[in-house]
Design brief:
- The complex is a heterodimer.
- By secondary structure, chain A is an alpha+beta fold.
- Chain A has one domain: Alpha-Beta Plaits (2-Layer Sandwich).
- Chain A is 18% helix and 18% strand.
- In chain A, a hairpin with a 2-residue loop joins strand 3 and strand 4.
- Helix content of chain B is 67%, strand content 5%.
- In chain B, the strands form 3 sheets. Chain B has a two-stranded antiparallel ribbon with strand order 1-2.
- The chains are: A alpha+beta, B mainly alpha.
């Protein structure tokens, strides 16, 4: 059986947040909702280095859903709307979720997002607050993103363009693409190729080869959630941006 | 007096209707009308739920104590106590409705329950408690219902039976016997509803403010502090203060006072352990209580201590009894509300960062879930702290449920034979 996972090389992450934007577009996220976050570790604002001159550091930490093997959100869901598929993806059934938000309390990574208002209202408000006079798409039924509903083999709705109100949603590793043999949008959209996605159980897969013999870490591993997103720690860059401006110049 | 009573009923009805209107408005617009957002996903409704679960317990603890611990002083108020238990158990379930994003899908709790989650268990325990307390109330009242009947509005008298003196005496004996048999079921259930409610929160490793073994015992002691206070208030409404019932009230007041002190002891015992290590998420949650939420914390401690003082010093003064009961209710409600902010505002995902030669825990911000501000003055999309204050809608709905419970109590007291016939 496949065990899908992801490895993110922090040395390659340039903090451009392309993954977050690509994710938002492909998955039709409502305004204010982000399945993917990238922040500068230790900074109040993104892209501001931390520390004191000259000992500054700027490490970007992208966080998708960790698709934990021992996922607290799966355990707490009172109706089994969140479950783990055999291939390891933790998914939300948009038709079963009752919106109790217990999973948001349980998730230590702050991944889960609730639809506080209807899709129409949140887009209308988003447009208005962003300063667009029309306040609305020209075609009110239009939504960006993958255009079709996606159901798992047992018929559970895990992706739909117009998200129902009052339910919890989260990163699915782009289940609608993965089921068609494609890579998640963030993996394809990363300009630094920082992300690799694949089968952790297959020793010949790219991800297995990358992880093998490398120092990888998982977030909050002491909680025992066993995330399937692995991080390669950033390597220390000598000089300015890793470029040596020595006497050679 | 009669006029006063009518005004109170009218006032409560207005609050209840406003609450209903607010709930309909919330159903129409979505939970966006609350001040909860992604980083702070449970609010006033959940705090009130925990509070109602606590107040519900008092009722059956008092009624079952009559038979289990032979506390005969409590006999005259057994019916009132059992009735409050039923009402608050219902209230606890009602107040969760507005917190649910999709109440129309609640049937999934029955057809797809996940028993690894504590919530279905809580649902089972709470509804069994409501059923048992209803049966208990009925059992206690049955002889009088049979003797006089119940006068339903628009319907007339029902349940009346032709009884001889002997028959009535036999019924009373039977009711006493049945109640004796129900008591050993009722008491463990009363303890279980808090325990399971506490477990819903205490099992969450991500939330250091809740996680651990001390939450359930604290919940029970808080329940045993507010439960008797609610019963005192309810019986004062029904019976007024009679010298004959002095022993009853004194006992209730004592139970409340002792439980309040035990609760504060357990609370501060937990604080000590968090404080001593002086570092990490557990300590930071405590620090939040003593910095940003110091006012709320002061309210809970002062009011709970005040009630214990009043109950111990003046257990025989009806006015003081009311003051003590109200003060423990305010204190424990503040205590319940304080369950939330330190739990959510200590973001579980933190990364240690070295700044000024010191390690600082940096919290990874969470998307709010709504676009706030405008193009020229955008507000933060990702936040690591959410200062939650309940919105008007949340307050209106919560107040509405409270008013509804009190109204239901007043009405049921009129219809049902809650007063024991003097023998």
């Amino acid at each position: 059986m496949r065990k899908l996972g992801m490895v993110i090389d922090l040395s390659r992450c340039i903090g451009c947040r392309s993954c977050a934007v690509v994710c938002k577009i492909h998955n039709s996220l409502p305004p204010g909702t982000w399945w993917q976050r990238v922040e500068t570790v230790g900074a109040k604002e993104h892209m501001i280095p931390t520390g004191e001159y000259p000992d500054l550091s700027e490490v970007f930490l992208p966080i998708p859903c960790q698709h934990c093997e021992n996922a607290p959100c799966v355990k707490v869901c009172p109706v089994g709307a969140t479950w783990q598929r055999e291939d390891g993806l933790v998914l939300v059934d948009y038709e079963r979720c009752i919106g109790c938000r217990y999973c948001m309390t349980a998730c230590p990574y702050g991944i889960r997002q609730f639809n506080w208002q209807s899709s129409d209202d949140s887009f209308k408000e988003g447009f208005k607050n962003a300063g667009f006079e029309e306040n609305w798409f020209k075609d009110k039924e239009y939504r960006y993103g993958y255009p079709l509903d996606h159901r798992t083999k047992d018929g559970r709705l895990v992706f739909t363009l117009k998200r129902p109100r009052g339910i919890v949603e989260k990163c699915t590793f782009c289940v609608q693409y993965v089921d068609q043999g494609l890579l998640p949008a963030c993996v394809r959209g990363c300009p630094g190729n920082a992300r690799t996605f694949g089968d952790l159980n297959d020793p010949n897969s790219e991800i297995s080869k990358i992880i093998r013999g490398r120092d990888v870490f998982k977030l909050l591993s002491d909680l025992g959630t066993e995330p399937k997103v692995f991080y390669i720690p950033p390597s220390r860059k000598e000089g300015k941006g890793g470029i040596s401006y020595g006497k050679k110049l | 007096m009669e006029k006063n009573y009518n005004n109170i009923v009218k006032g409560l009805a207005v609050v209840a209707v406003l609450g209903l209107v607010a709930y309909i408005y919330q159903l129409y617009s979505g939970l966006i009308v609350t001040n909860m957002r992604n980083p702070f996903s449970w609010g006033l409704y959940v705090a009130t739920w925990a509070f109602y679960v606590g107040t519900a317990a008092g009722g059956l603890v008092v009624s079952s104590a009559i038979y289990l611990f032979n506390a005969r002083q409590l006999k005259p108020i057994a019916r009132v106590a059992a009735l409050t238990a039923f009402l608050f158990a219902m209230g606890a379930m009602i107040i969760l409705l507005p917190d649910i994003g999709r109440p129309d899908r609640l049937y999934n709790m029955i057809i797809h329950p996940n028993f690894k989650s504590m919530l279905p268990w809580d649902f089972i325990v709470l509804s069994s408690y409501a059923v048992v307390s209803a049966i208990y109330t009925y059992t206690l009242m049955y002889p009088d219902i049979a003797a006089k009947g119940v006068k339903l509005p628009f319907y007339g008298v029902v349940g009346r039976k032709e009884l001889t003196e002997e028959g009535l005496a036999r019924l009373r004996e039977e009711s006493d016997k049945k109640a004796k048999r129900l008591a050993p079921i009722a008491l463990p259930l009363a303890i279980l509803i808090h325990t399971v409610t506490a477990w819903v929160l205490a099992t969450q490793f991500a939330r250091s403010w809740w996680y651990g073994g001390v939450l359930a015992p604290t919940f029970i002691s808080a329940a045993l502090a507010t439960g008797p206070a609610i019963v005192i208030l309810a019986s004062l409404v029904v019976f007024g203060y009679k010298d004959k019932m002095e022993g009853t009230y004194t006992l209730l007041a004592k139970v409340s006072a002792v439980s309040a002190i035990i609760m504060l002891f357990m609370y501060y015992n937990d604080f000590m352990i968090r404080f001593w290590w002086h570092n990490g998420r557990d300590f930071d949650a405590l620090k939040l209580v003593f910095t940003k939420y110091i006012f709320l914390h002061a309210v809970e401690v002062i009011f709970i201590l005040l009630s214990a003082y009043i109950f111990i010093k003046y257990p025989k003064d009806p006015k003081k009894l009311v003051q003590g009961s109200l003060s423990v209710i305010v204190g424990v409600f503040a205590h319940r509300f304080l369950l939330l902010p330190p739990a959510y505002n200590i973001i579980p995902l933190r990364v240690p960062v070295i700044m000024h030669n010191e390690t600082v825990e940096w919290s990874y911000p969470i998307a709010v879930g709504q676009i706030r501000g405008n193009l020229n003055n955008p507000e933060k999309v990702f936040v690591a702290y959410w200062s939650y204050v309940p919105s008007i809608v949340e307050i209106a709905v919560t107040a509405g449920v409270m008013a509804f419970l009190v109204l239901a109590f007043l009405k049921l007291v009129q219809i049902l034979p809650v007063k024991e016939v003097e023998q």
